[in-house]
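Running this now, will post back.
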Amino acid sequence: MRKALSTLIAGLAASSSIATAADMPPTPKVRVQTSQGVFVLQLDAERAPVTVHNFLEYVGAGFYDGTIFHRVIDGFVVQGGGYGPDFAEKPTRDPIPNESGNGLSNRRGTIAMARTGDPHSATSQFYINLVDNAKLDPNEQRWGYCVFGTVVSGMEVVDAIAKLPTGPRGDIPSDVPKTDVVVQKMEIVK
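Update: finished.
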């Protein structure tokens, strides 16, 4: 499975605009300004080159600006990157290959790609782990969820988001903050 994934990633990088680790800084940073405060992510382009490139393309296009954190489960994750405050899902680019198994674990403070049951379905949605969630890591029987970075400052903002009251909103049946938590701006920083 790993060899097939490596071949797929190499083919995608060669045939498209997907960058390899050599084409970008190994640890780019992204500043995330939300309606609840600011936090900074440090991404790992060496271990998750396709995922980091995908995320940075969305950041550079302003895709995340104005989106909400639509899934907040205290003691688990906060998730965003797919919906506006009107709960309309934003159109995305094609899914990327799953780079889980890259040596990064779903530990507290890490950022990873959300996906459906299809392991290669991640597009724009991401989550931040509030606790160690090793059950989301890959194992010999299944794919995991690809970790591609860490919150390096402002984790207290993420923790504050996790404490907000939640419930059903829009077409989402549960775990949505009762007050919108809006990503006001995401930007690549040095």
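The radius of gyration is 16 Å. More later if anyone needs it.
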